[in-house]
């Protein structure tokens, strides 16, 4: 066993807590819970959906799933939802799952088992589903998915888990910071594990939607970079330049590489412009949530 301090309720209680923050996720919450609870024995996971500032039927839909606890808070804040989830959850390892991604129960089971043996944080491998997207988006994600940042030790993009010792590395969830990137920078690589299995991320369907998503991520990451906290350090990426140069030797990657660079440059510029203008509009991708 590692020094992670993970705990579960013996062999009879839940093996892990799953906290799902959800803001107006009525279009996808059923899919998220259905996939998670498939082939899972009753009570195997302590599943908590935290509806934050919802104006739709997310809470009602989540309550229809047996064994799911639903919490509701008025504030439309993912970080506040994560904190409420932590306040009511009772089991470690603790899995944090975005409502718009899909992770099978067997993958959650493997993630919890891995963290009971070693590490402070972990996640399965992400898999991008661009089947409903445009050709440009498919090319973009075909290239992006090869980036070394998504290799072993990557936590984020919709799923990650913490042991008790990992969660005790910080206090309340930092407001206005990207939760997954925060954890990735807080927990050193040697204490992050890649568990068996994958989880599915439905990509935006259009390049316009992907650009908006990238602008949001850029703004969140810029906030994280400005945090004056010695405990948050390090880089979340390998050498993008090396990655690009290696793939530019092969013409079949040129279209995806061009889109990758274009989105990176334009989103960075737009993020800076939005900050200078004091714009704080939430650019959430709705195309990946469409039926």
UniProtKB/TrEMBL annotation:
GO cellular component: plasma membrane
Any one Gene Ontology molecular-function term assigned to this protein's record: glycosyltransferase activity
Pfam family, one: Glycos_transf_2
Keywords: Cell membrane, Glycosyltransferase, Membrane, Transferase, Transmembrane, Transmembrane helix
Pathways involved: Carotenoid biosynthesis; staphyloxanthin biosynthesis; staphyloxanthin from farnesyl diphosphate: step 4/5
Family: Belongs to the glycosyltransferase 2 family. CrtQ subfamily.
Name of the protein this chain belongs to: 4,4'-diaponeurosporenoate glycosyltransferase
